[in-house]
UniProtKB/TrEMBL annotation:
<dbReference type="Pfam" id="PF10157">
    <property type="entry name" value="BORCS6"/>
</dbReference>
<feature type="domain" description="BLOC-1-related complex subunit 6 C-terminal helix">
    <location>
        <begin position="58"/>
        <end position="152"/>
    </location>
</feature>
<dbReference type="InterPro" id="IPR046465">
    <property type="entry name" value="BORCS6_C"/>
</dbReference>
<protein>
    <recommendedName>
        <fullName>BLOC-1-related complex subunit 6 C-terminal helix domain-containing protein</fullName>
    </recommendedName>
</protein>
<feature type="compositionally biased region" description="Basic and acidic residues">
    <location>
        <begin position="39"/>
        <end position="49"/>
    </location>
</feature>
<feature type="region of interest" description="Disordered">
    <location>
        <begin position="1"/>
        <end position="51"/>
    </location>
</feature>
Length: 162
């Protein structure tokens, strides 16, 4: 063991550029850290696993509390998202109903305007057709007026004779 201790001391003093070359041992030492029990520590070694278990249980409790807190946060988040989505969907549905109603009323107004416009166009076309025959009617009226004027002047001459 003294040789092993000497080699360890020698290894501690090596720099990064130096390499220790030694003959391989048939029974190499363990790579696990060695624990040398101190007097009176034997009682502690038996209670040490209990401390580890206690620490493990405490750690598990902390992890469990954190997990519950995270789960609560996720539950709150999803509830909030669900509410927001519901409100958006509700608003979207309300807007769609409003848009549908407005589009329906606009369609009725457009149909009413189109009907009145067609009536106006048809009336204008009829008036235009009637106006084409008015020239001949105007000529006939002029002739009729001349004849009435001539008749009137003839009657006036007859009545003034005495």
């Amino acid at each position: 063991m003294e040789e092993d201790g000497g080699e360890r001391a020698q290894r501690r003093h090596l720099t990064s550029s130096e390499t220790l070359i030694s003959e391989p041992h048939l029974d190499p030492p363990s790579t696990c850290p060695e624990t040398i029990p101190h007097p009176g520590e034997e009682d502690r070694t038996e209670s040490k696993p209990e401390l580890n278990q206690t620490e493990i249980f405490r750690t598990l409790e902390v992890v469990e509390r954190d997990s519950l807190a995270i789960a609560d946060s996720f539950t709150t988040l999803f509830a909030s998202l669900r509410l927001a989505l519901s409100e958006v969907t509700s608003n979207s549905v309300d807007h769609m109903h409003c848009f549908s109603e407005a589009a329906g009323r606009l369609q009725e107004s457009v149909l009413d305007c189109a009907t009145k416009g067609n009536r106006y166009i048809n009336s204008s076309l009829r008036l235009n057709e009637e106006m084409k025959g008015i020239d001949s009617l105007a000529l006939q009226l002029k002739l009729l007026r001349r004849n009435v004027d001539a008749l009137d002047s003839g009657v006036n001459k007859l009545l003034r004779l005495p």
